[in-house]
Amino acid sequence: MDSRDGYTWTPTDGLKAGVPSLGVITPSTNLSESEEEFYDVIVVGAGYCGLTAARNAAVEGLKVLLLEGRDRIGGRSWSSNIQGYPFEMGGTWVHWGQSNTWREIVRYQMMNEVEKSFDFSHGVNHYELNIGLEGSTMSHDEEDALLIAALNKFTNIDGAYGRNMIPLPYDMFHVANATHLDDVSAQDRIDAIALSLSPQERAAVESFVLLCSGATLATTSFLEFMHWWALCGYTYAGCIDMLITWKFKGGQSSFAIKFFQEALATKRLAYAFNSPVNNIQDTGRKVQVTTRDGRRYHAARLISAMPLNVLGEVTFDPPLCAGKTKAIATGHVNQCVKVHAEVSNKDLRSWTGVAYPHNELMYAIGDGTTPAGNTHIVCFGGSNKHIDPEDDIDATKRAVTNMFVQQKDQPNIERLVFHNWSKDEFAKGAWFFSSPGFLAKHLDDMRERHGNVLFANSDWALGWRSFIDGAIEEGTRVAYEVRTELTKLREVHSSS
Amino acid sequence: MDSRDGYTWTPTDGLKAGVPSLGVITPSTNLSESEEEFYDVIVVGAGYCGLTAARNAAVEGLKVLLLEGRDRIGGRSWSSNIQGYPFEMGGTWVHWGQSNTWREIVRYQMMNEVEKSFDFSHGVNHYELNIGLEGSTMSHDEEDALLIAALNKFTNIDGAYGRNMIPLPYDMFHVANATHLDDVSAQDRIDAIALSLSPQERAAVESFVLLCSGATLATTSFLEFMHWWALCGYTYAGCIDMLITWKFKGGQSSFAIKFFQEALATKRLAYAFNSPVNNIQDTGRKVQVTTRDGRRYHAARLISAMPLNVLGEVTFDPPLCAGKTKAIATGHVNQCVKVHAEVSNKDLRSWTGVAYPHNELMYAIGDGTTPAGNTHIVCFGGSNKHIDPEDDIDATKRAVTNMFVQQKDQPNIERLVFHNWSKDEFAKGAWFFSSPGFLAKHLDDMRERHGNVLFANSDWALGWRSFIDGAIEEGTRVAYEVRTELTKLREVHSSS
Fold first, then answer.
1. Residue B94: inside a domain, yes or no?
2. How many domains does chain A have?
3. Do A28 and A69 belong together in one domain?
4. Contact assignment for A462 to B111 by CB distance below 8 Å
5. Are residues B12 and B140 in the same domain?
6. What mean pLDDT do residues A48-65 have?
7. Is the domain of B321 the same as that of B470?
8. Contact status, residue A304 vs residue A311, Cβ threshold 8 Å
9. Given CB atoms, is A312 within the 8 Å cutoff of chain B?
């Protein structure tokens, strides 16, 4: 089935909106028109967080309604399967160091359904670092050495590469001083170590940090980057392993659908896609949610699993507290642009490259071989030189081509696949990344419940915030909280 | 409450059997004499695996009976809280790289209830390496450098420190060649690299490997050690982080009890401690379990969460298949001896040491400061020079004292705390570790179900086998399998 989300471009068909995905749910609802149910819990948002919350609640005996604005599950993590090959539209890589995600992968016995993005056995087996007009190539071992040197300088704030500052990544502010570090931007940190960096090291570390944040150096919290670094074991090798190596052979949506199917099998899951929510009203005795088209649903509790950047579109009654309102108004800064290019050059499979700071796409790797035998290159840009890829396809193709300076490696583009996360009304950006000072001020605000409404999202997870893992962490947390609470309530009622 | 398990020794009270633990359950059963219930599932064994299986099944709506031979939960992982300080009798450390464990820690919001074992801020801040009669001390940085050099030589079988041989730790035999490596013993591997090792490196790597296996070098599978190494990110720093750094402030039993309490709160958990199982009979229509004292219980499914080394004590009807029978007859080889010493020397808090191969205890670290201000040293021995610590307390004290060669650091022992895992009828050894060839032959056998009986244990987990994490992995797997299966059966019945 095709989702409304995403775009493809091919020489034959040109630009087309909508791409096929295993995550599209048909029929789009299992509610009957006449039904007037009272649910234990309504979950708003069917990304991994909402899916986890809905699944856990349903499996544990609660009557659940799942509402989603899109036509598909997965939120900011989904794949489009085109001619048998999955293009990851947002969210790709998983690792056994990501506890919540991996727990689910093992539970669904999918640990053999992952494969490596990298394959350094093909012809163009090198790293290309294009700084402005200056291009150079080096071996992947030299690439690693460059990044290790650069990132070690960048992260070594405490003589221990961050181990002393963030010893316990799930408690980011475990060391009180870390609060101050959140005020530091990536730009501040680069400025502080600039004299120690070679031009190549500087371009390598800057583009790597921006790959993580999707923002600009000035709008990237240094501490939030350090948090990723700590989760990855304080090493570049750990970052590569955990951030960009293992992906699902069948694509992210092959994983997400398991959650939905399990929930559905309980027969306690009602759902409605294409159902954006307008208003959430908590009377104290129950919660009422109103969709954009005026339908109303009622439940004892509501789990809002919407991302930070879109929460402002929903009105809450009573209104949200000042801290949360301010966090929502500020939002996060990640405007990552992810573009897949299928190119006929088979040898590019082993290529990796950076084109920075001049190019609209700045970081790319050979990510797979399509059934047609073409190479799949995944390219990342962001706020540094932001584009809306569908607005000018020729410019987007140029941004891909510009990753390659060597004439002989010029890619012959046969397909582009992408989604515009910045213009997505249900995301307004990619994965969460915070600007300086934001988390120290607002992490607690974002996590706080509001009466019978609980807020869950990867955007304010404690561990792998911004990742699928953080989404599952959060969905797990609130489902547990709601179930425990409703069980107690029922005991009180049945004993009174 | 005191458990029958464990021993303490103090100068005043001498040797005493039984230690207090939060994991002791009173009353020991919630069954009434008259009751004749039919359960959805009976879980045999209340270690982390059985606890997880029982909890998940109960929370997801099944009627569960949990049977346990001991007077306490936790199996091979439990703590004794003595005067407000937890001594870990078996199983101690946890890490966010252990996906199943950490998922539960976050779910129970216990991520701030962990603390570091190491504290390198006190007086005797060094590493002591005693090889035979030769003692030497070095800084902890030198200790790290020594271990890194030694372990890198030991693990570098593929030019990539094992990354190529075990790229995907949850699929240990992902690279077919790994099967052959399972035939190699740690001794074989040491022999192969012996010329490249200094005497200090050799003692350091051998004692570290034996710390992991609790066996002898000849009975330690090299591949199983490599599996640990791979899970730890292929580095010594990763091993230290994940294997021996973070522990619960309140002890392991403060974690295990959460599982039990959550299951109990569902009101679908029946349980009986002090109830060792004798016989498990599967009629095809139901499973009947008979306890040692002749009580019988019936269920649709049975989850055996007993360790490999004690499965031979239970008779199965129909008998188990040949592969499983052989695996049980072979067993695993870990006979770790773990002895806690509370010593009055405050400065020893920052000490770490090895006394190998001459001493009965070979590896020890300063693990904490007790409420009395004493230092808590945890010492490990194993099959290398195996002892039953309660048999000769003076010899056990000498084995502790012998860890320290420097006269000025001689510990003044005020308390010993330990459990004899080798003589424990419900364990017959410590955490799983395999002899050469065992896993390639028997991993699948151990995991296989037997009609309506499912076998779950950390001993045959795919990921963190031998760890609490592997226990939770396994409990999760079988509870999911049983629930899915029974739900389908009921649908068939209700529609027919």
1. no
2. 2
3. yes
4. yes
5. no
6. 98
7. yes
8. yes
9. no
In a domain, A97, yes or no: no
A 211-250 → B contacts, CB under 8 A: 231, 233-235, 237-238, 241, 246
What pTM was estimated for this model as a whole? 0.97
Does the structure show a pLDDT above 90 at A134? Answer: no
Q: Which amino acid is it at B73?
A: I
| CA of B98 vs chain A CAs: smallest distance (Å) | 6
Q: What is the pLDDT of residue A408?
A: 83
Instruction: Out of B102, B171, B480, name the one closest to residue A99 (CB).
Output: B102
Angle between the N-to-C axes of helices B199-213 and B186-193, in degrees from 0 to 180, rounded to the nearest 10 = 170
The answer to whether A96 contacts B171, with C-beta atoms less than 8 Å apart, is no
Same domain? For A134 and A239 the reply is yes
Neighbours of B160 (CB within 10 A): 12
A154 shares a domain with A226: yes
Question: Which amino acid is located at A340 in the chain?
Answer: H
| Alpha-carbon span A160 to B144, nearest angstrom | 14
Same domain, A474 and A378: no
Do residue B462 and residue A111 have CB atoms under 8 angstroms apart? Answer: yes
Q: Which domain holds residue A440?
A: 2-79+252-331+428-495
* Token reading at A1: 């089935």
Question: Between chains, do B477 and A169 touch, taking CB under 8 Å as contact?
Answer: no
Contacts of B27 (CB under 8 A, 6+ apart): none
Q: With contacts defined as CB-CB under 8 Å, which chain A residues touch B112?
A: 168, 171, 174
Q: Per residue in A66-121, pLDDT tens? A: 999 999 999 999 999 999 999 999 999 999 999 999 999 999 999 999 999 999 99
What are the pLDDT digits (tens) for B424-476?
999 999 999 999 999 999 999 999 999 999 999 999 999 999 999 999 999 99
- Using a CB–CB cutoff of 8 Å, tell me whether A107 touches chain B: yes
Last residue within a domain, chosen from B391, B420, B449? B420
Contact map slice: A 154-193 vs B, CB within 8 A: 167-171, 174
Instruction: Select from A52, A95, A106 the residue whose CB has the most chain B CBs within 10 Å, as the one to mutate to test that interface.
Output: A106
Residues of chain B positioned with their CB less than 8 A from the CB of A463: 96, 102, 106, 111
- Predicted confidence (pLDDT) at residue A445 exceeds the cutoff of 60: yes
Q: With respect to residue B471, please indicate whether it lies within any of the assigned structural domains.
A: yes
In which residue are the tokens 């490249």 written?
B196
Give the rounded distance of the alpha carbon of A488 from its chain centre. Answer: 35
Contact list in A for residue B101 (CB cut-off 8 A) is 99
d(CA A218, CA A436): 8
Chain A: give the shortest CA distance to residue B154, in Å: 20
Do A383 and A264 lie in one domain? The reply is no
Q: Does B106 score more than 80 pLDDT?
A: yes
Last residue of a domain, one of A420, A446, A473: A420
* Co-location of B362 and B458 in the same domain: no
CATH of the domain at B50: 3.50.50.60
A400 located within any domain? yes
Q: With CA atoms as reference, report the closest residue to B418 among B336, B491, B474.
A: B336
Q: What are the start-end ranges of the H helices in B62-215?
A: 99-107, 140-155, 178-181, 186-193, 199-213
pLDDT at A409: 84
